[in-house]
Write a structure and sequence with these properties.
alpha/beta, 12 helices, 690 residues, extended
Length: 690
Amino acid sequence: MRSELIFQTPYWFIIFCVVAGLAYAWLLYQPQPAWGKKLNYALAAVRGIVVALICFLLLSPLVRRTQTSVDKAKIVFAIDNSESVGKHGQAAMEQVKAAARELNDSGFEVSIESLGGTESNADSLAFNQNKTNLAGLLQTVRTNFEGRNLTDVVLLSDGIVNQGVSPTYNRYPFRVNTLAVGDSVPKLDIRVKDVVSNRIAYLGNEFPVRAEIAANGLQGKSTTVTLKQNGRVIQSQPVVIDRADYFKAFDFKTSSAQKGVQHYTVELGAVSGETSGRNNRKDVYIDIIDGRQKILLMALAPHPDIKSIRSVIEANDNYELDINILSIANNPPASTKPYDLVILHQIPNVLGLGNAQVRKFLDAKMPLFFILGNQSAVPLASSLNRSLFINASANNQVDKVTARFNPSFSQLNLDAESLKLLERLPPLSVPFGEYNVSSGTETILYQKVGTLNTSKPLLVLNTNGDQKTAVLAGEGIWQWRQEEFAQTSKQEVVDNLFQKLIQVLSVKEDRRKFRVYPISNEFEAGEQVAFQTEVYNDIYEPIFGQEVKLELVDEKGKSKQFTYTHSKETPRFNVSGLADGVYRYAASTTLKGKQENVSGQFVIRNADLELSNTTADFGMLRDLARRSGGTFMTPASLQQFIQKLKTDRPADRLDSTEDMVELIYLKWLFFLLVVLLGAEWGLRKYHGDY
């Protein structure tokens, strides 16, 4: 530590401080005292020093303190402790530990990092990680030693990367010296390299499963690849290995009549001579859903708009569309069918067809999308839709209007710039009259008459209350789609507008007061499963303190029960130690004396990434060392590398920190002044002077 005094005023101002101290002491101690001259001089000196020091502090001098520390050269041994390294890494660890001790004795600071984090005890390091992310490991080292004198990293690895990017793509502020272990000679092996499938499939629909099979050095041999579900063989195909470096994809097709996550297995038959059979199977989990949202398009009569709306809806596989044309249908649709959205084209109408059905849809609180036309009963439609009220003219006069997007509408996250195209599209036919919107209704499109912008709504949306409604006040959507294609060779703007509108109308809102769900639908083997818990009162404010019972059931029917208390501090409940497979959960709690229940499912995957490739990649390790200026070595040459490090020892780094503070803020000066003044006052009082 080195300190330096800095003046903010001319240094010769100290003379005034000394003069002030001498003058104060002379005036105070000039009369003949009741004690001896020596004591009088001593007390005067104390008072003079204190006064001079206080005056000096008032000049606001600064103290600059500089502290220098030595940052020793640091070496990190980064250990790839994945399963593929296994016994090769175990054998090399004794040499690594000996090298670490030798470097530490030579004045280096040595640390050991692994895929699991910093290792304080290298003896307990287990090579059991089921995935390898070397770029992540080196990035962790970089973060942990940011700003420190880290010169070299020794990476013990077999070069196999099965997660993250290759470490050769990154640049590091230290040399990466690679210590290569493992076997770089391809083993005689056949394996399921990967399984490609949809995560979601629909109930009863056929869906594909593709198995990618790879083999090394087993040419001339054959086996079978089988798709199974819960041990039941669905389909098998022969695998004939016709070359040393074999790869082929096999396609299966299957379907499921059961809802929920279904567990499938792709399995290879054993082949004589292969090194390991552990990689001869892979599990795949497919969520079978009956979740298509059901939409009814009910229209008065055939119309080009109907085909356009159908094209917009059927572009999304999540929708199931029923079409009912009242003028040609024998029977109207059943109002009891649980539709997620009903689109009413020119209904209610002046002919009275379907008008009674609309009231039933309203009573069932189904979301409704009204599209008005020339045959619409406008007064009745205004009273039924509860969003847009049109006081139409007595002679049913119509207007020709184009659309103008409302830029303040943000509920659907639409692109205002692209929607300017609507102003160049053909006009729609809308009822002429006075337009008013109800409370809570938002306008998406305004009417534009020629070049005149009006405040009359053309398309409105109301998502408040128990029933969602939308109203398009005109017909002619089909012309919009045709003209957009003529201008842009695409049908994106109009389709995107109505697809988002249909989506917000048909989506179901979760109004449950008790919710328990895993934070992810899939977890990896060994990972904790976290359940989020939410409990609400009648006005949907979060409440806490409820006891929750949770039951987990695996594929074999084995059950585990847990009980926990939901609190603000711990809204999540973690479960660990679950094996791979499909789990179903059920949770319950009591609210106001009534039991609330919720259920669902999740998957734990055992990826077995380490088994998909067991051939060491020394080429990648050489490239990584070359790019970073490091050295590629094997365990046999490790000692030679250590000796080179000791011979060409990197210099230690001197780190200096500097701070500046006003002298008046130093606490020891305050206590010094208090002691001096206290001693002077005590002596004066002791000798009878006040």
